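User:
Note these tokens:
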Amino acid sequence: MTQLAKPHRAAVEAWLASGLVAAHRAVGAPIYYVDEFIDLFVHVPPDRRALLFPLIEPEHYARLYGVTGALEQLEDFLTAGPLARKWPHPLVRLDFALALRPDLAREMRTAAGLFALIGDGVVALSPWLSVHPRRALAQLCDRQLDACSAAWIDPQFLRRQYGDCVGSDWDAILHYASLGDARGDWPSASFNTHVWAEDAALTGPLPLQPFAHFLWQGRIAGFPPLAPFLGSGLAASAMLVDADRHSLPSDRRFFQVTAQSGDAASGAPTRPTLAVALHIFYLDVSEAILLRLARTDWPMALYVTTSAALEDTVRARLDATGLPYALSVVENRGRDVAPFLTVLPRIVEDGHLFVLKLHTKKSSHRLDGDHWANHLFDALTSPDSLEAAITALVTTPDIGFVGPSGHVLPVGDFIGPNDAQVGRLLQRLGLRLDSCRLQGHFVAGTMLLARVSALAPLMSLGLRVEDFEREAGQLDGTLAHAVERILAVSGWCVGQKLLVQGGGAENLKNRSRFYGAPG
């Protein structure tokens, strides 16, 4: 039987005395004595040794230090000392414990001292695990990540990325922690390690492991509840998807034109009926919009809102289009936002998957108001744009919104006098205003294509028409302007992202054209 050297037995005794070993004999009795531990350790299969010594992960330790025997790894760790061997396990960062409690550096210089500190619940092990030391150890023994860390890690995503290199979900996580993070791999589709590394480089040395660095900094600075990307540019927000980098099916036409036409044997999906929520306030603009919609070959159902004074005229124009429609009369308040919220439940009830939100925008306070509105209409209703946008929604489940390039703006740069109302709405959604300022984006003009299910958080706010201010020609600062800022953000809180149609470069060029140079 291999024996540990005498000086190292004291460290193991400290480990056992602290109650850190969660192993049990076959009869279920806990292990209390060092000789019993050593006797059992050499006979335990490698895949069960984590129960005996959870701080050492054998494959990781062998890869880093070239020490392959299980007992040899234990002795090497005890000999080298915690400060010299910072990586006994890919999820354990002993330097993290030291950073949290630099006053305990002397105690942490020996394995026995570190074990005692962990056992006494004084220091945490890792930013991957709970900041509560005992809970962190329990999670390590149970092979569970802390909820905050797990929110950014998708084991299925990792397994697809690594293929045959990994077996179980836990193996995929350990492989990523050991190697993938250092290579700049993503832990999920939501976290771009390269973007985080670029942001972190602005304030210090480039981290060798971007995701671990994010967890570490996030713990100390206050873990962001939404997304880890702090930049204000297009590529730096987890909320945004850039159309330049978003791959769509290679066929120009992804859908059959109708259920009856096209090559049904090809397996191409038929076009889903699109709900169009259209608020009509300006009759002259409505004529052009209805003409655009009538000319498309996309199946659609119109949900139109207008004032009582325009009802008869609007109904006649809708009849002339030949499109199915439902017309609702609404009070003139809340601009286009309140009317949209009144028809949204009907759209959900009718079972539509996607909704195109339009309104008769003029923006007479702007010299370029007509050109601005036409740019929005063209981007959303042209056949190719509509086909590409709906294809993106169908093929990518985490895209919930599509906004025209040039009109997707960062909330922080364009919040204006709406911060108080935006803050109240975000609080009801369980989000923070400061995070939204840094990372949130919205579609200016509130014309966009949306996945109906992505609008559920917005609907959960229960806003009523009477909650909106009466119309008085306000240019900003109303509840409608606040909802404009949080409409897509509300979907983001359930993982639904915003696709910028036209791509990032086009978005910035048009943003400068319509809203001024990027700030």
Observations:
- Confidence is low (pLDDT under 50) at residues 225-236, 259-265, 364-369.
- Strands lie at 240-242, 274-279, 300-306, 325-329, 354-359, 399-404, 408-410, 441-443, 448-451, 497-501.
- The chain is about 45% helix and 10% strand.
